[in-house]
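Supplementary Note 3. Input sequence used for the single-chain structure prediction.
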Amino acid sequence: MLIFSMSGIPPFGGFYVKLDVLTTLIEHSNFYVTFILFFCTVASFFYYLRLIKIIYFDNKVEYTTNEVLSNERVFVVIVLFLLLACYNIFVQVPLLYAELE
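The predicted structure, written as discrete structure tokens, is reproduced below.
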């Protein structure tokens, strides 16, 4: 049901959110943005439909991998995670102080 909602199928909540955004854009005469958003919505619908097909209708395949994570990959993932977790401290707080001055 979550995938259907994200794809914008009418009885679910995602449809009403997308409809509200598209209606607001049309009311404010943002036709180019509306066209781009509508195109992305249609493209995402086919992506989510393919995801449902893979999950429920394709044959199950067992994936095995013998690849061990290298130290460099682990380091990059940890650094990126810490930067994302500390985004509020490193980016938002200095921007708020800059606005106050």
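The chain has two domains: 2-56, 71-100. The mean pLDDT is 82.
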